[in-house]
């Protein structure tokens, strides 16, 4: 069985946003777990540790050769959407140790049930708060394409 073929992330350099909508041949509950449970997030994205759960939970997401990125859960609408804020600035010399509104971007995952599985959308904004907004928005466009392809492979491979 071949993996669902999805379009790449769309980078809007004027609005400083990245968005990507994909389809995954897996049930909504399984996709929800993959984007909200740190143990599951760690299987396809950065190694994720959260202190607590739900809105206000804080922690880190660590990527090999990059370091620990501080993250915070901003909003949760159970089985519909989750918003994270992270201090992920590819162009910065050093990563922040805590998440503040002026040093971070925000990304929201939204889920919808569709025929044959789940539609997952991600939108990341706030790049104006980073050291090099255009460079970062481009990098994250590539990142969301690569990372969400890993998520599809993980969920469809395990189906």
What would you note in describing this structure?
The chain has one domain (10-157): START domain (Alpha-D-Glucose-1,6-Bisphosphate, Chain A, domain 4, 2-Layer Sandwich). Helix content is 26%, strand content 36%. It contains three helices and eight strands. An eight-stranded antiparallel sheet has the order 1-2-8-7-6-5-4-3. Strand 7 and strand 8 (117-125) form a beta hairpin. Helix 1 crosses helix 2. The longest helix has 25 residues, at 133-157. The protein is globular and about 45 Å long. The chain starts with 9 loop residues before the first strand and ends with a helix.
CATH homologous superfamily designation: START domain
Look at the helices and sheets and give the structural class: alpha+beta
| CATH architecture level-2 label | 2-Layer Sandwich
Main pleated sheet: 8 strands, antiparallel
Mean pLDDT figure: 94
From the 3D structure, determine the CATH topology. Answer: Alpha-D-Glucose-1,6-Bisphosphate, Chain A, domain 4
Low-confidence stretches: none
Radius of gyration over all CA atoms, rounded: 15 Å
General form: globular
Total beta strands: 8
Major sheet: arrangement of strands:
1-2-8-7-6-5-4-3
The total number of structural domains is: 1
* The top level CATH class name: Alpha Beta
Proportion of residues in helical segments: 25-40%
Question: For the terminal residues, how far apart are their CA atoms?
Answer: 10 Å
Q: What proportion of the residues form beta strands (DSSP E)?
A: 35-45%
Tally of individual helices: 3
Written as H for each helix and E for each strand, in order along the chain, the element string is EEHHEEEEEEH
């Amino acid at each position: 069985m071949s993996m669902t073929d999805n379009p790449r992330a769309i980078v809007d350099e004027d609005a400083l946003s990245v968005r990507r909508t994909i389809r995954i041949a897996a049930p909504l509950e399984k996709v929800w777990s993959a984007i909200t449970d740190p143990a599951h997030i760690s299987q396809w994205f950065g190694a994720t540790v959260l202190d607590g759960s739900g809105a206000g939970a804080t922690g880190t997401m660590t990527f090999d050769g990059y370091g620990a990125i501080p993250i915070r859960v901003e909003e949760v609408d159970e089985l519909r959407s989750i918003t994270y804020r992270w201090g992920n600035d590819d162009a910065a010399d050093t990563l922040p140790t805590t998440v503040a509104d002026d040093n971070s971007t925000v990304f929201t995952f939204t889920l919808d049930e569709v025929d044959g599985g789940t539609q997952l959308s991600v939108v990341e904004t706030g790049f104006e708060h980073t050291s090099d907004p255009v460079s970062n928005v481009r990098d994250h466009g590539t990142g969301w394409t690569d990372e969400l392809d890993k998520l599809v492979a993980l969920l469809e491979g395990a189906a």
